[in-house]
Design a protein that fits this description.
Radius of gyration: 26 Å
Strand content: 25-35%
Number of domains: 3
Number of strands: 25
Mean pLDDT: 84
Length: 447
Amino acid sequence: MTTPIDNILVQVQEYAPSYLTYLDNQTLYIRESNKRFENFNTKFSANLGDTIKFDLQIRANVTRSLVAADQPIVQRFSTITAGNAYNSAFIVSDPQRIFNFAKSESTSEQIEYYMENFTKPQGEAISSAIEEDMSKNIIGARTYQDSNRIIRTDKESGAFRFFGNGTTQINSAQQLAQMNANFRAWGNVFGKVNCYLPMTKIPLFVDNFLNQFVPTRNEEMAKKWMLGTYQNVDYFDTNIIPRHDSGTVGSLAQTLTVLSVITNPQNQITGVVASGASVSDPNAIKANDMVEFNLSSNANLNTTFGTFVSGLDTGLKVQNRVAEDAGSDSSGNVTITFIRPFTVGSALDDSINIVKPIVPNMTLSVPPSHFAGSLHTKDAFLLAMPRLPETTPYPSAVVQDSQSGASLRMYYGFLGTGEPAQRVVLDCITGSALIAERSMRIILPLN
């Protein structure tokens, strides 16, 4: 355990603030997340590992007739588990507080100095950790503790669609327009959309965009190195972006050929057995790899996405996300399990609509390792920061912003070790999710 003697402090003779700006990470994910649906602020339990359910859009089918054809109602929902805990703590002795914090006998000035120079960095460290964990939703890799303190991965969170091949840079207005069109054609036709891109990729866009916007916008972009709004999409940059490391199939750009399909009792396609991987390779496919079925000149070997509502043909290539690691056998065959099943036609449950069935001899590809941006509807990235209980008998303060729903607890108290020292703690618990059907992964080359 850290003790006051471990602190590296300088005795203050004459205090002169430097007024240097703080080095910090952006808090894009927290700031832009959806924190406002029911139960976040009032009914949500504040215990680590507790789960809240929220409903998703109910789907319905149509019969082309005036004769009524009843259909079942399938209530769809997803979950958020408040299974990520964070704390930042200091231990400070009374002599350190008096001689090292500030050259002032005023308790209020000492508290002000502490809050500005110690508590603020604590809060920023916590927010950076939350940002990192939230970003992992984009690649389906966020982990959390359940109510039994078992570490789990939230496989439901994160997109099953993607844009980009992992080798070609995405840096033009035409590419952004195509990405937006692909996203909306599947079903997200209306409303505002958010796009998160790596800060280091923004200069590529600025160089290409300066001649494609009005002069005022050009000046704004040149100054801020930001994309702003384009085709009803708000573009944001961030210095916290997840990286996905693909299996060998993606790294070597191997094309796989379907040998057979795997179905569940509802006759939905849950996976495929495919050939073409390196032989006896334990790392052929990795969980959260993205797969795409290639289009062929043979119409019998083609299938495309159906729209979310009614399963109408979009003309878009069929894609999915891999649920778990898979190795190849001695013949180079590999079994790939999808994160969501495919339904031919129009589904009522969580499965993905496709126009024609997946059959043997269709081919599929896997993008290589990549950085992952995100395109999603503004309400699709969810964050829960439930209010923690007070730490009786220790003095504590729990503040929850009524607008954002964010909650941080601060408490302090003597250690009880006989030494005149106090521990000061900032902590919180969170849960987050990115709704799969309302998001798309943006696959960006590593270089």
